[in-house]
Amino acid sequence: MRTEKAIAAFLGNLVGLSDGTMTVYQSQLARFAVAFPELPTDRDVVDLFVTESSSSRESRTMMRRTVGRMYEYLVAQGEIAESPVTRLKVGRPKKSVRVRVDQLDAVSRLRLIRDSAGHVTGIDLTTELRVTGDDGKTSVVGTVGPIRCANVQDWKPPPSDDPPADS
What would the pLDDT profile of 96-110 be if each residue is shown by its tens digit? Predict the structure, then answer.
């Protein structure tokens, strides 16, 4: 089957698409027709064309969708037995969960690092962000650290912005 004939049948069957979408379909399928005067049915050939069609991932994805839709149309019309376009496996996005402030809790652990004589030589600080659900179950949703501070002999706490307490 001639590629141009397949493209013309596919584009002629599309209804309700914006002018911009039609322009994108036409330009992408024109590039496909130049590369393949005869419609390829070999999966590896079509995948190689789509992969090499652009350096931009978004453009390659759009090319794969456009060419894939044309092949799906040809399968539905009985022109070919199966589409040679490999479908992208795209998972569903994770369900977002709303969390109330009273469900959040940050738990920090401070571990002193000591040398063989027992002197403090460093500090490890790890903080976990925990969420407690309405059912009472607690889940760790994030961890920061460990943040390691070595050579702490001269370490002093930073000055406080709070006024000194009256004595």
Answer: 667 677 777 778 887
